[in-house]
Amino acid sequence: MELMVDFVYGELKLPEEAVGWREAMRTLALRIRDVLLDHSTLRSRNWSSRDEARAQLAPQTSLLMKAGRYPRYEHCLRTATREDDLRWQFETGLDCVLDGIAARLAT
User: N- to C-terminal Cα distance for the chain?
Assistant: First the structure.
């Protein structure tokens, strides 16, 4: 198990040294999230990229939308509202945590 974790984290690129602590932590958190999501979802389906995943899921997505049984799902796909954007949700939460750390460091 440790070798698998080492392999996955080996793909992680560290932030540039010139950035401040906040930007470094934000970049690192986003990169860790991306690496973990890629490995947990893509690898379990033997997909090599997110583009391949989209291509494989396109027929199912199309069928769901044509069925008319999932209007909320169709609305979200067509409008790409942020409320269902998991990356946006993660980044918003991360920014709140970083704001808290910055406020704590300032006192």
Answer: 41
Q: Which domain, by its residues, includes 87? A: 2-106
What is the rounded distance in angstroms from the CA atom of residue 42 to the CA atom of residue 105?
A: 38
Question: Are the C-beta atoms of 65 and 74 separated by less than 8 Å?
Answer: yes
Burial class (CB in 10 A: 0-12, 13-18, 19+), 92: exposed
> Residue 79 pLDDT more than 70?
no
- Please state the domain count of the chain: 1
Question: Over the stretch 21-56, which tens digit does the pLDDT of each residue have?
Answer: 888 899 889 988 888 877 776 677 787 776 787 788
Q: Let me know: does 35 contact 11? Beta carbons within 8 Å.
A: yes
CB neighbour list of residue 9: distance below 8 Å, 6 or more residues apart: 35
Residues 6+ apart with CB under 8 A from 90: 30, 33
C-alpha 24/C-alpha 12 separation (Å) is: 13
